[in-house]
Amino acid sequence: RLFPALRRPAAARCEAGSKVLLKEMDYPELEEKGFRPGQAMMLWKCLYGNNVWAHSHDELAGLNKDFRKMITDHANLKALTVKDILAASDGTRKILFSLEDGPVIETVIIPCDRSRTTICVSSQVGCAMNCQFCFTGRMGLRKHLSTAEIVEQAVFARRLFSDEFGSITNVVFMGMGEPLHNIDNVLKAAAIMVDEQGLHFSPRKVTVSTSGLVPQLKRFLHESKCALAVSLNATTDEVRNWIMPINRNMDDAKRLIELVQGIPCKINLISFNPHSGSQFKPTPDEKIIEFRNVLAQAGLVAFVRLSRGDDQMAACGQLGEPGEYQLPL
Ligand code: SF4
After folding, report:
1. Is the shortest distance between the CB of 152 and ligand 1 below 6 Å?
2. Is the beta carbon of 129 within 6 A of some atom in ligand 1?
3. Which of 20, 105, 156, 164 is the most exposed place for a label (fewest CB within 10 A)?
C-alpha cells in the first residue's frame, strides 16, 4: 500500500529526481500519502523535531525496518545543498545554498543571545518587485522557491547553529524575494515551521514581510497564524513609487503617525544597506534617531534596528548572486 501511494500523480510535483521530496508535504499530506499514522508522526519528528532534523536515512531512528527501507528507496530528506557559509564580524552568518536545478539562494542567521536567534529566509530566486534600494530586486524574478526549499533553510539553520547559538527562535521572511508573490508555498512552509510536533516556532515569532501585495496580504491574514510585516519605506504613493529624498524624512514621520492611527503595531526602522550600483546612501544615525523620536513622541512603539552582517553582504537588501556583488568603495 505504501509504495503506490508515494507514486500517485498527486505526488509528482514533490519529486526530486525520481524520489519524493518529503519536505514538500505538511503533516496531513504526509499521513495521506499512505504512511500509517504512528509511523508518519515518527517520520515527521525525525524530519523536524527531537533535535534530529534528519538529512540522511541513517538518522531515521525509531522507524520500523521496512518503513525505513521504503523511505530510503523512494524518498529524499534534503532539499538544499550548502555551497558556502560566510561569517560577518558581528557574528551574523550567511549560508549560500545551491538548489537542485542550479541557482543559489541565501539565508541569514542573526544571533542575539543564547535565548534568541533569528533566521532570515528567502522565498524566491531574485524578485519581481524591483525596489530601488534592493540588490535582490536587480536580479528580476528567476524562480519561486518550493515549500521544501523554504522549510529546509530553517532546518539547516537549526542543524548547523543550534549548538553554537543556542535556541533558534525567530523566522523572518525578509530574504530574497517577495514572499506573498509566492503565497501558496510560503503559507505551507510557515505552517510546517509552526507545527507543534515539528519545528515548533511560535506563530508570533514567524514574520512574513511584504512590500504590499494587497489581495495576497488579505489571504495571508485569513489563512495564517503567523505575523505580518509591511515594508513601507515611505508614506505616500508618490514617494513609494520613487524613494523619498532624505530631507523629507520628518514629513514622512508625521504621515506615518496618521497612517497607523488606531492600528496596534510596532515600527521597525531599518537603514538602507549599501551595495554596488545603487544610487542610495545609508541614512545618518542622527536622522534615524530624530525620526524615531518623532514617532515615540506621538505614542508609537518604534525601534531602530541595527544592520547585521553588512560586511558580508548579509544585511537587508544585500542578498543577491555570489560573484556579482561587492561592497561599494
Ligand atoms: Fe523584492 Fe523585497 Fe528586494 Fe523589494 S525589498 S525587491 S520586495 S526582495
Report:
1. no
2. yes
3. 164
For the record, the C-alpha cell of 84 comes out as 558556502
* Rounded distance between C-alpha atoms, residue 191 and residue 299, angstroms: 34
225 residue type, one letter: K
Find the 174 Cα to ligand 1 centroid distance in Å.
Answer: 8
SS3 11: helix
Protein residue with its CA nearest to atom 8 in ligand 1: 177
pLDDT in tens, 111-157: 988 789 999 999 999 998 888 788 888 888 899 999 999 999 999 99
Ligand 1 atom with the smallest distance to the CA of 176 is: 8
Q: Averaged over 22-33, what is the pLDDT?
A: 90
Contacts of 71 (CB under 8 A, 6+ apart): 22, 43, 57, 60, 63, 77
For ligand 1, atom 6, the nearest C-alpha belongs to 137
| CA atoms of 21 and 320, how far apart (whole Å) | 26
